[in-house]
């Protein structure tokens, strides 16, 4: 025979549950605050211990931070594990940093399949880095089956968000007809964007970009070159916020004269 609880009994049960939950939340807040204080003091091992306790109890706060701390402490496998947990909770930073640590041989993991899952998750959340990495993986069959068309789709999306390396790879795909119908004019336009999208290109990169521009434009008329040049400047304006004075002067000289 079941026990029928009175309204008073139900109130007592519910109150006890609220108190337990409040106590648990207080403990969570205490550990989190203590971890932050430890971080401020530069005590990474103590901060990691506290955050790990929260993580093991299923508290998602700090998954990504814990991964970053573990990486700083040189515990790369555990860092990857926490980044993956943060990624599962939808944290794009965790996806990107997890993909980096899992795919880079420097960290000693080098698991292409695990890395691809994280790159793809970030790509699907419109991260340009995720789109670039997922695109390259799909084109090369790195950690996934080869799917050149989808790979180039991701490169195009990243290129339109001003990811310089994606712009370069997308331009080469257009030039070669790799996953796209070959289009020299559009490839040249993207090379114009590539040249202006990053300040981190080194001398060798700049020389290669210049050589590629020369090779592509060799098959174009002067009017095609001008049109493609202006299109490339448009890519910069749309994806990279190209509104500096030098850029405006270039557009005026090339496109309005």
Question: What layout of secondary structure does this protein have?
Answer:
Elements: H1 7-40, H2 44-56, H3 63-72, H4 76-88, H5 92-103, H6 112-123, H7 128-140, H8 148-160, H9 164-176, H10 184-197, H11 203-217, H12 222-240, H13 245-255
Q: How do you describe this structure in short?
A:
It contains 13 helices and no strands. The protein is an all-alpha fold and 257 residues long.
Properties at a glance:
single chain; Serine Threonine Protein Phosphatase 5, Tetratricopeptide repeat; 2 domains
Strand portion, in percent?
Answer: under 5%
| Poorly predicted ranges | 1-23
Largest sheet: none
Query: What's the number of domains?
Result: 2
Which value, in Å, is the CA radius of gyration?
26 Å
N- to C-terminal separation?
94 Å
The total beta strand count reads 0
Give me the number of helical elements: 13
Protein described:
This protein has 257 residues and is mainly alpha-helical. The protein folds into 2 domains: 66-158, Tetratricopeptide repeat domain (Serine Threonine Protein Phosphatase 5, Tetratricopeptide repeat, Alpha Horseshoe), CATH 1.25.40.10; 162-257, no CATH class. Helices cover 75% and strands 0% of the residues. It is built from 13 helices and no strands. The protein has helices spanning 7-40, 44-56, 63-72, 76-88, 92-103, 112-123, 128-140, 148-160, 164-176, 184-197, 203-217, 222-240, 245-255. It is elongated and about 70 Å long.
């Amino acid at each position: 025979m079941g026990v029928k609880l009175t309204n008073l009994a139900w109130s007592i049960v519910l109150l006890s549950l609220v108190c337990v939950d409040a106590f648990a939340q207080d403990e969570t807040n205490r550990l989190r605050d203590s971890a932050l204080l430890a971080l401020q003091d530069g005590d990474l091992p103590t901060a990691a211990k506290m955050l790990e306790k929260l993580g093991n109890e299923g508290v998602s706060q700090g998954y990504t931070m814990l991964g970053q701390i573990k990486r700083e402490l040189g515990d790369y496998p555990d860092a990857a594990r926490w980044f993956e947990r943060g990624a599962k909770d939808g944290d794009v930073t965790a996806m990107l940093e997890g993909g980096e640590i899992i795919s880079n041989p420097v960290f000693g993991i080098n698991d292409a399949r695990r890395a691809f899952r994280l790159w793809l998750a970030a790509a699907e959340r419109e991260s340009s880095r995720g789109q670039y990495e997922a695109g390259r993986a799909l084109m090369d069959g790195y950690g996934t089956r080869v799917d050149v068309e989808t790979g180039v789709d991701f490169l195009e999306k990243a290129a339109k968000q001003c990811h310089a390396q994606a712009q370069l790879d997308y331009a080469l795909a257009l030039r070669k007809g790799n996953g796209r119908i070959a289009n020299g004019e559009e490839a040249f336009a993207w090379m114009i964007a590539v040249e202006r999208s990053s300040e981190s290109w080194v001398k060798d990169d700049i020389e290669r970009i210049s050589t590629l521009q020369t090779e592509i434009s060799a098959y174009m008329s002067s009017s095609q070159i001008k049109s493609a040049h202006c299109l490339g400047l448009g890519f910069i304006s749309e994806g990279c916020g190209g509104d500096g004075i030098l850029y405006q002067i270039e557009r005026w000289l090339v496109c309005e004269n």
